[in-house]
Amino acid sequence: MVRKVWLSLLIFLFMGSVTASAARLENVRHSYGSGTLRIVLDLTEEIEFVESTAENPSRSIIDLQNTTVSNEFHNYFKELNSTAAKKIRVARFNDSTVRVVIETMAAIKIFKLNGGPSGHRIVIDVGNADFKENPELNKAQTDAEKKAAEEKAEAEKKAAEEKAEADKKAAEEKAEAEKKAAEEKAKAEKKAAEEKAKAEKKAAEEKAKAEKKAAEEKAKAEKKAAEEKAKAEKKAKEKERKEKDRKEKDDSPKDVDEEIKELTGLKGKIIVLDPGHGGNDAGAIGPTGVMEKTVTLRVALELEKLLREKEAVVIMTRTTDKTVSPKGSKASDIEELQARCDVANREKADIFISIHADSFTNPAARGTTGYYYAKSDTDDGRRLADAIRRGLCEQIKTPSRGTKPCNFYVVRHTDMPATLLELAFISNPEEEKILDSEDGVKKAAQGILDGIEDYFG
Ligand SMILES: [Zn+2]
């Protein structure tokens, strides 16, 4: 029960307070004119006021009715820097009245302004100026509006600045991005240009290389042509010389047989005889131990004798049981064979004859073979091999195994018509006997000579 009484009392006090302080003075402002002063009182409600004056010092008193004041402006005091008024005071006069005192000698004019954004105001103009009709001062009357406008302007300015800053930043970023893109583009173009230049350089190098190669091949072909021309000229000269000799002989009376002999004979022919094997290389060995190197040398020496009788120029790759290469037994097979070719090529021989004897595991194998190098650009090699093979078969009565193309080193690497002869099979007992006999050697030499004469005839 006691509690209920206290609550009712609190409600009563609260309501009474609201009734007694319906309006409140919130703010006191002032602004200066030329010899004038305007004081504005901002209130929460429209109020009534009572105006009076007092002397010593001269004062205007405005009592705001049914009004209270915020703590901020209770006992408010302001010294004024104006000729119109010296001081202003604000204080609670009693529970329902706030008193405003202005120390002034000048007349004052008081009016109310209600509504609008600035709320309820009491305006006190001190001095003679008509503030209402002065727009500048009238504007100053509403400092809060001005402040708001300034704040708004400030905010707008700030926003504009921020926008400008953001725009600037965006423009800078855009410029940066464009710059970067331009740099990358330039870089890519540079790279492309470099690659193009590289490709062009390579193409030029390849072209130069191809031209160089073509020039070299042309020079080679020209050299070969010149050599062939010189060879042809030499041959033509020789023919001319022979014709001349014959004419001279025609002038003097001579035997017809002698004439023919000189035209078709072996006189002056350069013939290289190559007895196969020699020295540390015995060649094939027969059933009774007859060595190929011995047979080939014997036949070659006999043939040399016969050819010299025909006034041929005979050159032997060897005349004793030795190798042809000066390296002797240390020479490789190729070196030894090349040494034999070198003799014929150096002497510019008309023909080259390499003499050998054949051999096979089966002792029944027999016969005579003439070999030539098939790739020769004339038919002379085959003709020479065939003529000699025929001569041999007739003389030593061996069966013919034919005239065959081959790839033997000595016939391939000599510059003139060349043949390699397999006289007979040293591995065959009967043919070994022929090759080892005095009669057989002589007949073999005769058979080769017949072939040579046939070839030149
Ligand atoms: Zn041989």
Describe it.
This protein is α/β, with parallel strands linked by helices. It is built from 10 helices and 16 strands. Strand 6 and strand 7 (87-94) form a beta hairpin. Helix 7 packs antiparallel against helix 10. The longest helix has 109 residues, at 143-251. The chain starts with a helix and ends with a helix. Mean pLDDT is 87; it is low at 1-20 and 131-138. The structure holds zinc ion. Zinc ion binds at residues 276-277, 283, 292, 356. The site of zinc ion has 5 residues, from loops.
Write the layout of secondary structure elements.
Layout lengths: L1 H19 L2 E10 L4 E7 L5 E6 L4 E7 L1 E3 L6 E4 L7 E8 L2 E7 L4 E6 L6 E7 L8 H7 L1 H109 L4 H9 L5 E6 L16 H18 L3 E4 L16 H14 L4 E8 L9 E6 L6 H17 L3 E7 L2 H4 L5 E8 L3 H8 L1 H19 L1
Parallel strand pairs: 1-5, 11-12, 11-13, 13-16, 14-15
Antiparallel strand pairs: 1-2, 2-10, 3-4, 4-8, 6-7, 7-8, 9-10, 14-16
The structure holds zinc ion.
The site of zinc ion has 5 residues, from loops.
Order of helices and strands: HEEEEEEEEEEHHHEHEHEEHEHEHH
CA-CA gap between termini: 172 Å
Q: Please count the helical segments.
A: 10
Query: Average pLDDT value?
Result: 87
CATH superfamily label of the largest domain? Zn-dependent exopeptidases
Shape: rod-shaped
Content of β-strand = 15-25%
Q: Give the number of domains.
A: 2
Largest sheet: 6 strands, mixed
CATH topology name of the largest domain: Aminopeptidase
- Compute the gyration radius: what is it? 72 Å
Record field, number of beta strands: 16
Query: Which class of the largest domain in CATH terms?
Result: Alpha Beta
CATH architecture type of the largest domain:
3-Layer(aba) Sandwich
Percentage of residues assigned to helices: 40-55%
Kindly report the spatial arrangement of strands forming the biggest sheet. Answer: 12-11-13-16-14-15
Cofactors, ions, other ligands: zinc ion
